[in-house]
Design brief:
alpha+beta, Beta-Lactamase, five-stranded antiparallel sheet, 13 helices, 12 strands
Length: 443
Protein backbone atom coordinates (compact mmCIF):
# COMPACT_ATOMS: atom_id res chain seq x y z
CA UNK A 1 0.00 0.00 0.00
CA UNK A 2 2.84 2.36 0.86
CA UNK A 3 4.54 1.63 -2.50
CA UNK A 4 1.32 2.32 -4.45
CA UNK A 5 0.93 5.62 -2.54
CA UNK A 6 4.40 6.73 -3.54
CA UNK A 7 3.71 5.79 -7.20
CA UNK A 8 0.50 7.81 -7.22
CA UNK A 9 2.26 10.83 -5.69
CA UNK A 10 5.10 10.63 -8.27
CA UNK A 11 2.66 10.34 -11.18
CA UNK A 12 0.69 13.34 -9.92
CA UNK A 13 3.89 15.41 -9.64
CA UNK A 14 5.05 14.48 -13.15
CA UNK A 15 1.63 15.29 -14.57
CA UNK A 16 1.59 18.65 -12.76
CA UNK A 17 5.01 19.63 -14.15
CA UNK A 18 3.99 18.51 -17.67
CA UNK A 19 0.85 20.62 -17.58
CA UNK A 20 2.75 23.59 -16.16
CA UNK A 21 5.40 23.32 -18.89
CA UNK A 22 2.72 23.01 -21.57
CA UNK A 23 0.93 26.12 -20.38
CA UNK A 24 4.18 28.10 -20.16
CA UNK A 25 5.06 27.06 -23.70
CA UNK A 26 1.68 28.10 -25.05
CA UNK A 27 1.95 31.43 -23.24
CA UNK A 28 5.35 32.20 -24.67
CA UNK A 29 4.25 31.28 -28.19
CA UNK A 30 1.17 33.45 -27.81
CA UNK A 31 3.27 36.34 -26.40
CA UNK A 32 0.88 36.91 -23.40
CA UNK A 33 3.33 39.04 -21.39
CA UNK A 34 4.81 39.21 -17.84
CA UNK A 35 1.54 38.96 -15.93
CA UNK A 36 0.84 35.64 -17.57
CA UNK A 37 4.29 34.36 -16.61
CA UNK A 38 3.78 35.53 -12.97
CA UNK A 39 0.46 33.76 -12.85
CA UNK A 40 2.07 30.63 -14.16
CA UNK A 41 4.74 30.80 -11.46
CA UNK A 42 2.05 31.11 -8.76
CA UNK A 43 0.22 28.18 -10.32
CA UNK A 44 3.41 26.14 -10.28
CA UNK A 45 3.99 26.93 -6.60
CA UNK A 46 0.44 25.91 -5.80
CA UNK A 47 0.84 22.66 -7.69
CA UNK A 48 4.04 21.92 -5.85
CA UNK A 49 2.33 22.68 -2.51
CA UNK A 50 -0.56 20.38 -3.38
CA UNK A 51 1.88 17.67 -4.28
CA UNK A 52 3.61 17.99 -0.86
CA UNK A 53 0.25 17.93 0.92
CA UNK A 54 -0.66 14.78 -0.95
CA UNK A 55 2.58 13.16 0.11
CA UNK A 56 2.01 14.13 3.78
CA UNK A 57 -1.58 12.86 3.66
CA UNK A 58 -0.46 9.55 2.23
CA UNK A 59 2.22 9.07 4.89
CA UNK A 60 -0.26 9.99 7.63
CA UNK A 61 -2.75 7.49 6.26
CA UNK A 62 -0.03 4.84 6.30
CA UNK A 63 0.88 5.54 9.95
CA UNK A 64 -2.76 5.56 11.04
CA UNK A 65 -3.39 2.28 9.28
CA UNK A 66 -0.34 0.72 10.92
CA UNK A 67 -1.44 2.08 14.34
CA UNK A 68 -4.93 0.69 13.93
CA UNK A 69 -3.48 -2.70 13.01
CA UNK A 70 -1.22 -2.63 16.08
CA UNK A 71 -4.12 -1.61 18.35
CA UNK A 72 -6.32 -4.33 16.90
CA UNK A 73 -3.64 -6.93 17.54
CA UNK A 74 -3.34 -5.74 21.15
CA UNK A 75 -7.14 -5.74 21.53
CA UNK A 76 -7.52 -9.25 20.13
CA UNK A 77 -4.65 -10.86 22.06
CA UNK A 78 -4.84 -9.08 25.45
CA UNK A 79 -4.83 -11.30 28.54
CA UNK A 80 -7.58 -9.32 30.28
CA UNK A 81 -11.02 -8.95 28.83
CA UNK A 82 -11.61 -5.67 27.00
CA UNK A 83 -15.02 -4.24 26.17
CA UNK A 84 -16.85 -1.26 24.79
CA UNK A 85 -20.55 -0.88 25.63
CA UNK A 86 -23.37 1.58 25.14
CA UNK A 87 -24.57 3.40 28.27
CA UNK A 88 -27.85 1.45 28.21
CA UNK A 89 -26.08 -1.92 28.35
CA UNK A 90 -25.29 -3.30 24.86
CA UNK A 91 -21.87 -4.53 23.81
CA UNK A 92 -20.26 -2.71 20.88
CA UNK A 93 -16.94 -4.57 20.88
CA UNK A 94 -15.25 -7.25 22.97
CA UNK A 95 -12.05 -9.27 22.65
CA UNK A 96 -11.49 -13.02 22.79
CA UNK A 97 -10.25 -12.89 26.41
CA UNK A 98 -13.60 -11.47 27.55
CA UNK A 99 -15.47 -14.11 25.57
CA UNK A 100 -13.38 -16.77 27.32
CA UNK A 101 -14.08 -15.28 30.77
CA UNK A 102 -17.83 -15.22 30.16
CA UNK A 103 -17.85 -18.69 28.55
CA UNK A 104 -18.48 -17.80 24.89
CA UNK A 105 -16.67 -19.26 21.90
CA UNK A 106 -15.80 -15.94 20.28
CA UNK A 107 -16.55 -12.20 20.54
CA UNK A 108 -19.39 -12.31 18.00
CA UNK A 109 -21.15 -15.02 20.01
CA UNK A 110 -20.85 -12.91 23.16
CA UNK A 111 -22.24 -9.78 21.50
CA UNK A 112 -25.10 -11.79 20.02
CA UNK A 113 -25.83 -13.67 23.24
CA UNK A 114 -25.55 -10.83 25.78
CA UNK A 115 -27.95 -8.18 24.55
CA UNK A 116 -28.87 -6.74 27.96
CA UNK A 117 -26.00 -6.51 30.44
CA UNK A 118 -28.18 -5.48 33.38
CA UNK A 119 -30.65 -8.36 33.06
CA UNK A 120 -28.39 -11.12 31.70
CA UNK A 121 -24.90 -10.61 33.12
CA UNK A 122 -25.05 -9.53 36.76
CA UNK A 123 -26.46 -11.80 39.45
CA UNK A 124 -27.73 -8.66 41.16
CA UNK A 125 -29.56 -6.67 38.42
CA UNK A 126 -29.13 -3.37 40.27
CA UNK A 127 -25.37 -3.76 39.90
CA UNK A 128 -25.46 -2.19 36.42
CA UNK A 129 -27.24 0.86 37.80
CA UNK A 130 -24.55 1.21 40.45
CA UNK A 131 -21.96 0.98 37.67
CA UNK A 132 -23.70 3.74 35.71
CA UNK A 133 -24.07 5.92 38.82
CA UNK A 134 -20.32 5.74 39.47
CA UNK A 135 -19.66 6.57 35.83
CA UNK A 136 -22.02 9.53 36.01
CA UNK A 137 -20.26 10.85 39.10
CA UNK A 138 -16.62 10.12 38.26
CA UNK A 139 -16.42 9.19 34.56
CA UNK A 140 -14.61 6.04 35.70
CA UNK A 141 -14.85 2.97 37.94
CA UNK A 142 -12.02 0.97 39.49
CA UNK A 143 -12.06 -2.49 41.05
CA UNK A 144 -15.82 -2.84 40.55
CA UNK A 145 -16.25 -6.40 41.84
CA UNK A 146 -19.48 -8.22 40.96
CA UNK A 147 -20.88 -11.72 40.78
CA UNK A 148 -22.02 -12.64 37.27
CA UNK A 149 -23.67 -15.48 35.38
CA UNK A 150 -21.24 -17.61 33.39
CA UNK A 151 -22.57 -19.08 30.14
CA UNK A 152 -21.80 -22.53 31.54
CA UNK A 153 -24.52 -22.09 34.16
CA UNK A 154 -22.39 -21.33 37.22
CA UNK A 155 -21.41 -18.02 38.77
CA UNK A 156 -18.06 -16.26 38.82
CA UNK A 157 -16.67 -13.02 40.25
CA UNK A 158 -15.19 -10.30 38.06
CA UNK A 159 -13.44 -6.98 38.65
CA UNK A 160 -14.08 -4.16 36.17
CA UNK A 161 -12.06 -1.03 35.46
CA UNK A 162 -13.66 1.33 32.96
CA UNK A 163 -13.99 4.93 31.81
CA UNK A 164 -16.61 7.03 30.07
CA UNK A 165 -15.91 8.10 26.48
CA UNK A 166 -17.34 11.49 25.53
CA UNK A 167 -17.26 13.62 22.38
CA UNK A 168 -15.99 17.20 22.06
CA UNK A 169 -19.26 18.57 23.44
CA UNK A 170 -19.21 16.31 26.52
CA UNK A 171 -21.95 13.99 25.33
CA UNK A 172 -21.53 10.40 26.56
CA UNK A 173 -20.76 8.02 23.71
CA UNK A 174 -19.88 4.71 25.39
CA UNK A 175 -18.06 2.94 28.19
CA UNK A 176 -14.80 1.09 27.63
CA UNK A 177 -12.64 -0.87 30.00
CA UNK A 178 -11.21 -4.17 31.15
CA UNK A 179 -12.49 -7.23 33.02
CA UNK A 180 -10.51 -9.64 35.24
CA UNK A 181 -11.74 -12.97 36.57
CA UNK A 182 -11.17 -12.75 40.34
CA UNK A 183 -13.22 -15.79 41.36
CA UNK A 184 -10.30 -17.68 42.89
CA UNK A 185 -9.02 -14.66 44.81
CA UNK A 186 -12.54 -13.75 45.98
CA UNK A 187 -13.22 -17.30 47.17
CA UNK A 188 -9.90 -17.34 49.03
CA UNK A 189 -10.73 -14.05 50.73
CA UNK A 190 -14.20 -15.28 51.60
CA UNK A 191 -12.78 -18.52 53.01
CA UNK A 192 -10.26 -16.52 55.05
CA UNK A 193 -12.99 -14.28 56.45
CA UNK A 194 -15.08 -17.33 57.33
CA UNK A 195 -12.07 -18.92 59.04
CA UNK A 196 -11.46 -15.74 61.03
CA UNK A 197 -15.11 -15.68 62.12
CA UNK A 198 -14.86 -19.32 63.16
CA UNK A 199 -11.66 -18.54 65.06
CA UNK A 200 -13.37 -15.67 66.88
CA UNK A 201 -16.31 -17.91 67.78
CA UNK A 202 -13.94 -20.65 68.93
CA UNK A 203 -11.98 -18.13 70.99
CA UNK A 204 -15.14 -16.94 72.71
CA UNK A 205 -16.23 -20.52 73.31
CA UNK A 206 -12.81 -21.27 74.76
CA UNK A 207 -13.04 -18.25 77.04
CA UNK A 208 -16.52 -19.31 78.19
CA UNK A 209 -15.31 -22.89 78.76
CA UNK A 210 -12.28 -21.77 80.74
CA UNK A 211 -14.42 -19.43 82.81
CA UNK A 212 -16.85 -22.25 83.61
CA UNK A 213 -14.06 -24.72 84.36
CA UNK A 214 -12.23 -22.19 86.47
CA UNK A 215 -15.38 -21.67 88.51
CA UNK A 216 -15.84 -25.42 88.89
CA UNK A 217 -12.22 -25.81 90.01
CA UNK A 218 -12.15 -22.82 92.32
CA UNK A 219 -15.24 -23.86 94.28
CA UNK A 220 -13.77 -27.11 95.72
CA UNK A 221 -10.32 -25.54 95.87
CA UNK A 222 -11.59 -22.81 98.18
CA UNK A 223 -12.89 -25.54 100.48
CA UNK A 224 -9.47 -27.23 100.41
CA UNK A 225 -7.76 -23.95 101.26
CA UNK A 226 -10.20 -23.09 104.00
CA UNK A 227 -10.17 -26.42 105.81
CA UNK A 228 -6.39 -26.85 105.44
CA UNK A 229 -5.92 -23.39 106.96
CA UNK A 230 -8.21 -24.35 109.89
CA UNK A 231 -6.18 -27.50 110.50
CA UNK A 232 -2.83 -25.75 110.06
CA UNK A 233 -3.76 -23.00 112.51
CA UNK A 234 -5.46 -25.46 114.90
CA UNK A 235 -8.52 -23.23 115.05
CA UNK A 236 -10.66 -25.98 116.60
CA UNK A 237 -7.93 -27.34 118.88
CA UNK A 238 -4.64 -29.22 118.69
CA UNK A 239 -4.30 -31.70 115.83
CA UNK A 240 -2.38 -34.10 118.09
CA UNK A 241 0.67 -34.49 115.88
CA UNK A 242 3.07 -31.87 114.47
CA UNK A 243 3.37 -33.69 111.15
CA UNK A 244 -0.34 -33.32 110.53
CA UNK A 245 -0.06 -29.57 111.02
CA UNK A 246 2.85 -29.46 108.58
CA UNK A 247 0.89 -31.51 106.06
CA UNK A 248 -2.02 -29.10 106.36
CA UNK A 249 0.38 -26.24 105.68
CA UNK A 250 1.68 -28.00 102.57
CA UNK A 251 -1.88 -28.61 101.39
CA UNK A 252 -2.71 -24.93 101.85
CA UNK A 253 0.45 -23.80 100.05
CA UNK A 254 -0.16 -26.12 97.09
CA UNK A 255 -3.80 -25.09 96.92
CA UNK A 256 -2.85 -21.42 96.87
CA UNK A 257 -0.39 -22.08 94.05
CA UNK A 258 -3.03 -23.97 92.07
CA UNK A 259 -5.53 -21.14 92.63
CA UNK A 260 -3.00 -18.63 91.28
CA UNK A 261 -2.54 -20.76 88.14
CA UNK A 262 -6.29 -21.00 87.63
CA UNK A 263 -6.66 -17.23 88.01
CA UNK A 264 -3.88 -16.65 85.47
CA UNK A 265 -5.48 -19.00 82.95
CA UNK A 266 -8.82 -17.30 83.47
CA UNK A 267 -7.24 -13.87 82.96
CA UNK A 268 -5.57 -15.02 79.74
CA UNK A 269 -8.86 -16.32 78.38
CA UNK A 270 -10.61 -13.06 79.27
CA UNK A 271 -7.86 -10.97 77.72
CA UNK A 272 -7.86 -12.98 74.50
CA UNK A 273 -11.65 -12.79 74.30
CA UNK A 274 -11.69 -9.05 75.01
CA UNK A 275 -13.80 -9.68 78.12
CA UNK A 276 -11.47 -8.11 80.68
CA UNK A 277 -11.86 -4.39 81.36
CA UNK A 278 -10.22 -1.97 83.76
CA UNK A 279 -11.77 0.41 86.31
CA UNK A 280 -9.42 3.39 86.45
CA UNK A 281 -9.19 5.84 89.31
CA UNK A 282 -6.46 8.18 90.63
CA UNK A 283 -3.99 6.10 92.62
CA UNK A 284 -0.66 6.71 94.35
CA UNK A 285 1.90 4.61 92.52
CA UNK A 286 3.65 3.82 95.78
CA UNK A 287 0.53 2.05 97.06
CA UNK A 288 0.33 0.09 93.82
CA UNK A 289 4.01 -0.88 94.15
CA UNK A 290 3.55 -2.14 97.70
CA UNK A 291 0.60 -4.26 96.62
CA UNK A 292 2.65 -5.62 93.68
CA UNK A 293 5.53 -6.54 96.00
CA UNK A 294 3.11 -8.34 98.31
CA UNK A 295 1.74 -10.35 95.37
CA UNK A 296 5.25 -11.21 94.13
CA UNK A 297 6.37 -12.41 97.56
CA UNK A 298 3.22 -14.48 97.90
CA UNK A 299 4.15 -16.33 94.72
CA UNK A 300 7.91 -16.70 95.28
CA UNK A 301 8.04 -16.70 99.13
CA UNK A 302 11.13 -14.52 98.68
CA UNK A 303 11.43 -11.86 101.40
CA UNK A 304 14.54 -10.02 100.16
CA UNK A 305 14.44 -6.22 99.95
CA UNK A 306 13.20 -4.60 96.76
CA UNK A 307 14.46 -1.06 96.18
CA UNK A 308 11.82 1.48 95.11
CA UNK A 309 13.09 4.60 93.38
CA UNK A 310 10.66 7.35 92.40
CA UNK A 311 10.50 11.16 92.52
CA UNK A 312 9.09 12.63 95.70
CA UNK A 313 6.75 14.78 93.61
CA UNK A 314 5.59 11.93 91.39
CA UNK A 315 1.92 12.56 90.43
CA UNK A 316 -0.73 9.94 91.03
CA UNK A 317 -1.79 7.78 88.09
CA UNK A 318 -5.24 7.21 86.62
CA UNK A 319 -5.14 3.40 86.62
CA UNK A 320 -6.90 0.28 87.79
CA UNK A 321 -4.81 -0.35 90.92
CA UNK A 322 -5.65 -4.05 91.16
CA UNK A 323 -4.77 -4.78 87.52
CA UNK A 324 -1.65 -2.60 87.47
CA UNK A 325 -0.48 -4.21 90.73
CA UNK A 326 -1.09 -7.60 89.10
CA UNK A 327 1.05 -6.64 86.09
CA UNK A 328 3.87 -5.26 88.27
CA UNK A 329 3.57 -8.22 90.65
CA UNK A 330 4.14 -10.62 87.74
CA UNK A 331 7.23 -8.67 86.70
CA UNK A 332 8.59 -8.55 90.24
CA UNK A 333 7.89 -12.28 90.76
CA UNK A 334 9.91 -13.07 87.62
CA UNK A 335 12.71 -10.79 88.78
CA UNK A 336 12.86 -12.50 92.20
CA UNK A 337 12.56 -15.97 90.66
CA UNK A 338 15.42 -15.54 88.18
CA UNK A 339 17.78 -13.48 90.37
CA UNK A 340 20.25 -15.17 92.72
CA UNK A 341 20.00 -14.43 96.45
CA UNK A 342 22.92 -11.98 96.31
CA UNK A 343 21.41 -10.19 93.32
CA UNK A 344 19.37 -7.00 93.25
CA UNK A 345 15.79 -6.26 92.24
CA UNK A 346 14.63 -2.67 91.74
CA UNK A 347 11.39 -0.89 90.91
CA UNK A 348 11.95 2.54 89.36
CA UNK A 349 9.34 5.16 88.44
CA UNK A 350 10.25 8.10 86.16
CA UNK A 351 8.48 10.65 84.00
CA UNK A 352 8.63 10.09 80.24
CA UNK A 353 9.63 12.83 77.82
CA UNK A 354 6.06 13.02 76.51
CA UNK A 355 4.64 13.53 80.03
CA UNK A 356 3.73 9.91 80.63
CA UNK A 357 5.07 7.55 83.28
CA UNK A 358 7.69 4.80 83.03
CA UNK A 359 7.41 1.91 85.50
CA UNK A 360 10.55 -0.22 85.35
CA UNK A 361 11.38 -3.52 87.06
CA UNK A 362 15.04 -4.43 86.75
CA UNK A 363 17.15 -7.25 88.14
CA UNK A 364 20.69 -8.58 88.03
CA UNK A 365 19.58 -12.15 87.35
CA UNK A 366 20.31 -14.75 84.70
CA UNK A 367 18.78 -12.70 81.85
CA UNK A 368 17.79 -14.11 78.48
CA UNK A 369 18.94 -13.94 74.89
CA UNK A 370 17.47 -11.21 72.69
CA UNK A 371 16.02 -13.74 70.26
CA UNK A 372 13.97 -15.38 73.05
CA UNK A 373 12.26 -12.20 74.26
CA UNK A 374 9.42 -12.44 71.74
CA UNK A 375 8.73 -16.02 72.79
CA UNK A 376 8.73 -15.02 76.46
CA UNK A 377 5.97 -12.48 75.75
CA UNK A 378 3.66 -15.19 74.36
CA UNK A 379 1.26 -17.06 76.68
CA UNK A 380 2.36 -20.47 77.96
CA UNK A 381 5.89 -20.02 76.55
CA UNK A 382 8.95 -20.65 78.72
CA UNK A 383 12.28 -19.17 77.73
CA UNK A 384 13.70 -22.66 77.22
CA UNK A 385 13.32 -26.20 78.43
CA UNK A 386 16.14 -26.08 80.97
CA UNK A 387 14.76 -22.99 82.65
CA UNK A 388 11.30 -24.57 82.67
CA UNK A 389 12.75 -27.44 84.68
CA UNK A 390 14.78 -25.27 87.04
CA UNK A 391 12.12 -22.63 87.73
CA UNK A 392 8.45 -23.16 88.36
CA UNK A 393 5.81 -21.27 86.41
CA UNK A 394 3.28 -21.48 83.60
CA UNK A 395 4.82 -18.82 81.37
CA UNK A 396 1.77 -16.54 81.70
CA UNK A 397 3.13 -13.73 83.88
CA UNK A 398 4.91 -11.65 81.25
CA UNK A 399 2.16 -12.00 78.63
CA UNK A 400 -0.52 -11.00 81.18
CA UNK A 401 1.55 -7.99 82.24
CA UNK A 402 1.89 -6.93 78.60
CA UNK A 403 -1.86 -7.26 77.97
CA UNK A 404 -2.73 -5.33 81.15
CA UNK A 405 -0.31 -2.55 80.17
CA UNK A 406 -1.99 -2.31 76.78
CA UNK A 407 -5.42 -2.15 78.45
CA UNK A 408 -4.17 1.03 80.12
CA UNK A 409 -3.16 2.41 76.73
CA UNK A 410 0.51 1.74 77.41
CA UNK A 411 3.23 -0.57 76.17
CA UNK A 412 5.59 -3.13 77.68
CA UNK A 413 9.19 -3.46 76.51
CA UNK A 414 11.94 -5.87 77.54
CA UNK A 415 15.71 -5.43 77.50
CA UNK A 416 17.83 -8.38 78.53
CA UNK A 417 21.09 -10.21 77.97
CA UNK A 418 22.25 -13.60 79.17
CA UNK A 419 24.05 -13.21 82.50
CA UNK A 420 23.39 -9.47 82.67
CA UNK A 421 19.86 -9.32 84.05
CA UNK A 422 16.56 -8.10 82.67
CA UNK A 423 14.85 -4.71 82.52
CA UNK A 424 11.09 -4.59 81.83
CA UNK A 425 9.36 -1.22 81.39
CA UNK A 426 5.68 -0.37 81.32
CA UNK A 427 5.21 2.98 79.59
CA UNK A 428 1.91 4.68 80.40
CA UNK A 429 0.63 7.57 78.23
CA UNK A 430 0.30 11.16 79.52
CA UNK A 431 -3.47 10.68 79.84
CA UNK A 432 -2.77 8.28 82.74
CA UNK A 433 -0.85 10.88 84.79
CA UNK A 434 -2.77 12.95 87.37
CA UNK A 435 -1.35 15.16 90.12
CA UNK A 436 -0.55 13.68 93.51
CA UNK A 437 2.97 13.35 94.98
CA UNK A 438 4.35 10.07 96.24
CA UNK A 439 7.25 9.04 98.50
CA UNK A 440 10.32 6.94 97.82
CA UNK A 441 11.56 4.22 100.17
CA UNK A 442 12.83 0.65 100.29
CA UNK A 443 10.26 -2.08 100.83
Amino acid sequence: MQKHGRNRSGLAGTLAFFVAGLVIGVGMVSNLGGQFVAGLIILAVLCFGLMLLGRVAEETRTRVTAGEASYRAFFDHAVDGIFRTTPDGHYLAVNQALADIYGYSDPDALIAGLTDISAQLYVEPRRREEFRALMQANDMVTNFVSEIHHRGGHRIWISENARAVRDWSGELLCYEGTVEDVTEKFEQDRALRAALRQAEIANKMKAAFLAAMSHELKTPLNAVLGFSEIIRDEVLGPVGHDAYRDYAGDIHKSGARLLAVINDVLDVSRLEGGLLTIEARPENILDVAEQAIKLARGVTHDQRAIAIDMPTDMPSLLVDPRRLAQALGNLLANALKFTPKMGEVRFVVTRAADGGALLTVSDSGIGMAEETIAAALEPFRQVDGSLARRFEGTGLGLSIAKALAELHGGTLSVKSAVGEGTCVTIALPPTRVCAQPGTARVA
